[in-house]
Amino acid sequence: MSYSDKVLDHYENPRNVGALEANDASVGTGMVGAPACGDVMKLQIKVNDAGIIEEARFKTYGCGSAIASSSLVTEWVKGKTLDQALAIKNTAIAEELALPPVKIHCSILAEDAIKAAVADYRNKHEVVSAGYAACDPAAA
Amino acid sequence: MPTLPIYLDYSATTPIDPRVAEIMIPYLTEKFGNPASRSHAFGWDADQAVERAREEVAGLVNCDPKEIVWTSGATESDNLAIKGAAQFYKGKGKHLITVRTEHKAVLDPMRELERQGFEVTYLDPEPNGLLDLDKFTAAIRPDTILASVMHVNNEIGVIQDIETIGEICRGKGVLFHVDAAQSTGKAPIDLARLKVDLMSFSAHKTYGPKGIGALYVRRKPRIRLEAQMHGGGHERGMRSGTLATHQIVGMGAAFRIAAEEMATENERIRMLRDKLWAGVSTLDEVHLNGDMQQRVPHNLNASFNFVEGESLMMAIKDLAVSSGSACTSASLEPSYVLKALGRNDELAHSSIRFSIGRFTTEQDIDFAVQLLHKHVGKLRDLSPLWDMHRAGIDLNSVQWAAH
Q1: Does A109 sit within 8 Å of B345, measured CB to CB?
Q2: d(CA B99, CA B78)
Q3: Hey, which residues of B are catalytic here?
Q4: pLDDT tens-digit series, residues B250-285
Q5: Cβ B271 vs Cβ B365: under 8 Å
Q6: Which residue from A80, A115, B189, B233 has the highest number of Cβ atoms inside 10 Å of its Cβ?
């Protein structure tokens, strides 16, 4: 099969490859997919105090389209709020990369990775704020 | 520097040997007669060429030329052998035996026979890809009419013991069909000695043209088949249709060259394959698929763990290879052959088949090894699974969400 120029570009020069400190409270980590299905995406976002995603990193095991989809979303989520990031739809990813029908699942996985990373970040913060609340003398 | 891309997919198809192409060309133009034309020299010449080719094909596998039936390729030969024999002998029983690692050209006719009311046993091979002969013997029932076991596997190159399987079948009165599409010119075949009743051949895997093949149909003891293609009664009624003289001449020439050169050629190819394996097996977490000893020298199938096969093929696009990853198929199912060996999905998704042939050079292999070393490392740097492996996490202990 042939790949679009954009897939080839992301595949050959993947953006934002790497890892952020998963235990850092400002970092949300999402890992989606399964080795048995041939693709696993790990997406990490770092959120600043203003609630803006200021950094994103990925690592992906999968075909060229899966690598390109995850590379693309690291670019797209940067500078966005969590809600704006969640509004990124797989159809937009598939369209940008000109993915053929058999590769649509790669874009779905990339959308799922954003959701998982945001959920992880929010989960951490709910736990943290609950923790403060429990220690709050006024609340006790 | 070798010419790029380098072709390492000889198990998919081979180029026509230039010596073969040269022999074929006159049969496209001036020697165009129909071999079935009995009334003039055009027909006689074509017929003579077809019969010479029949002798050449028979010569490679040591059978009587009268036992060779021309077909359009191994797929048609498999269909004719399996469905033709099952339909002819259904009065004796309706059970057949085959192996899960067979080519689809065997498995799909078997499925069709199941729809027609036959029963089929699909045997699992051992983890090295070879059939356990005790399990095979145990699968034979009083109503078993035919067993089909391939000689050389197309994905992993392992050679089944068709000599012993033939003895077992003959002893139990079961017809034995062998798909030999991947073995001509690679592994010796002696049909005078083997107890094989039906054998499928293809020209284009052995430096002949595409679109032509043959089926060996044993005469002593005589095997009968129900024709699958009806028409002018060509090929003793077993396969009607005007013979493709130029293709047949090409298959004959290709098989003659294979007979003459296979001994020396295979030694050279084995040296190249061993060099390739020595080069890639120094990488971490590379797993050989299929038995290394009972294997044709042309094939190397290896899984590069934690790297997905299709993305690896993209990275090594200067090498024309194939992968057991099914990322391109809608089903997302990796190679059924590797899965039948008990390989897990990850390793099946990570597999690459290298197949070496007549025109592969030592420079090609050196280049391939170098390229693999560079890109496997790069893709592992990108792989979350590689990180987890290095952190000592057992991937089987992780709860993955299948999608």
Answers
A1: no
A2: 14
A3: 327
A4: 999 999 999 999 999 999 999 999 999 999 999 999
A5: no
A6: B189
Question: How close, in Å, is residue A116 to chain B by CA atoms?
Answer: 12
List the end-to-end C-alpha distance of chain A, in Å, as a whole number: 64
Nearest-angstrom CA–CA distance, B139 and B307: 38
Task: For the beta carbon of residue B263, count every other beta carbon within 10 angstroms.
Answer: 9
CA-only gyration radius of chain A, Å:
16
For B175, phi then psi, to 5°, come to: -70, 145
How far is residue B37's CA from residue A77's CA, in Å, rounded to a whole number? Answer: 73
pTM: 0.91
Q: Is A28 within 8 Å of A117 (Cβ atoms)?
A: yes
**Beta-strand (E) ranges in B252-291?**
286-288
Residues B295 and B157: beta-carbon distance below 8 Å: yes
This model of the complex carries an ipTM of 0.86
DSSP structural state of residue A54 = E
Type of residue found at B43: G
- A-chain CB neighbours of B345 within 8 Å are 35-38
Q: What is the pLDDT of residues B181-221, one digit of tens each?
A: 999 999 999 999 999 999 999 999 999 999 999 999 999 99
